[in-house]
Automatic annotation (TrEMBL):
<protein>
    <submittedName>
        <fullName>MBL fold metallo-hydrolase</fullName>
    </submittedName>
</protein>
<dbReference type="InterPro" id="IPR050662">
    <property type="entry name" value="Sec-metab_biosynth-thioest"/>
</dbReference>
<dbReference type="InterPro" id="IPR001279">
    <property type="entry name" value="Metallo-B-lactamas"/>
</dbReference>
<dbReference type="GO" id="GO:0016787">
    <property type="term" value="F:hydrolase activity"/>
</dbReference>
<feature type="domain" description="Metallo-beta-lactamase">
    <location>
        <begin position="41"/>
        <end position="207"/>
    </location>
</feature>
<keyword id="KW-0378">Hydrolase</keyword>
<dbReference type="InterPro" id="IPR036388">
    <property type="entry name" value="WH-like_DNA-bd_sf"/>
</dbReference>
<dbReference type="InterPro" id="IPR036866">
    <property type="entry name" value="RibonucZ/Hydroxyglut_hydro"/>
</dbReference>
<dbReference type="Pfam" id="PF00753">
    <property type="entry name" value="Lactamase_B"/>
</dbReference>
Length: 288
């Protein structure tokens, strides 16, 4: 999916967005890009020594910070970020446009380097590495490669605060789509199982409300995904179409009541499920 994120539910849209303080070293500002796929919008995070009062008053010194996911192209949002922090580094959690579209504007305003898992998204700096510790600001930030939603997805943890920025790997509400063929169900399940064994973190998602405990989120999402696979197996068996099923035919049945705006992402996730069943030898293949 090139221009939006990944949750398949709608929500009320706030009249205005303001900075939300989430811990001693983190805060976020939500972009005004609400939709059924992005929930209230994309949450752009800043990480650094933010002080007791954030954002700073006009004319006051700005804290030095790492900016995560500048959002879709929105000059006003880029200017609001640059007004609040001295940008040391820009990091993107994955390649979708609702996360990277504003990178050029923020880079032009601040001159800050840009890092991502995908080398092509980087500007003036090298690509991120799994288990790398970023030391661009006063608090250490650990990088976790977390494929599944996309192949290049990463998460960032701040051990000092017990926070983890999960991008679209774990949303604040609902479930993420798997952007097949770039997204992969087996990778996603592996990512959730790794994170499930990392208790003590609170989730800061790129979309939706923050505050869920990481372990509980992973248990919830693992149960959801495994239940979906069980349901798909049942449907295939009932239809006698478990050798080379048609994704579009299955989608017409499974997603008959799904709004058109999320039908495409839903079908991509379905294809990721079928690819998973093919990889483990339960079906021979599938067609579009």
């Amino acid at each position: 999916m090139s221009a939006s994120s990944s949750c398949m539910s709608s929500s009320p849209v706030p009249e205005s967005h303001a900075w939300v303080r989430t811990s001693a070293h983190t805060a976020f500002l939500t972009v005004d890009n609400p939709s059924a796929m992005t929930l209230e919008g994309t949450n752009t995070y800043v990480i650094g020594d933010l002080g007791e009062s954030f954002p700073p008053e006009p004319g006051a010194p700005k804290p030095r910070a790492v900016v995560v996911d500048p959002g879709p192209a929105d000059q006003g949002h880029a200017e609001a970020i640059a007004a609040a922090v001295d940008v040391a580094l820009i990091v993107v959690t994955h390649w979708h446009q609702d996360h990277v579209g504003n990178v050029p504007a923020l880079h032009d305003l601040t001159g800050a380097p840009v890092r991502a898992w995908d080398r092509e998204l980087c500007i003036g700096a090298g690509r991120l590495q799994d288990e790398e510790v970023l030391k661009d600001v006063s608090v250490e930030i650990s990088v976790w490669h977390s494929p599944g939603h996309t192949a290049d997805s990463i998460c960032l943890s701040i051990f000092d605060d017990g926070m983890i920025l999960t991008g679209d790997t774990i949303l604040g509400r609902g479930t993420t789509m798997l952007d097949y063929p770039d997204g992969d169900l087996e990778d996603y399940l592996d990512t959730l199982r790794v994170f499930k064994d990392e208790p003590g973190f609170t989730v800061l998602p790129a979309h939706g409300p923050h505050g869920e405990f990481l372990e509980e989120a992973c248990e919830r999402l693992l149960d959801h995904r495994l239940n979906r696979i069980h349901d798909l197996r049942r449907r295939l068996k009932a239809s006698d179409d478990d050798l080379g099923p048609s994704a579009s035919s299955l989608a017409e049945d499974i997603y008959a009541d799904v709004p058109e705006e999320v039908r495409g992402p839903a079908v991509k996730t379905l294809k990721a499920q079928l690819a998973y069943l093919m990889d483990i030898g339960e079906i021979a293949g599938f067609t579009d």
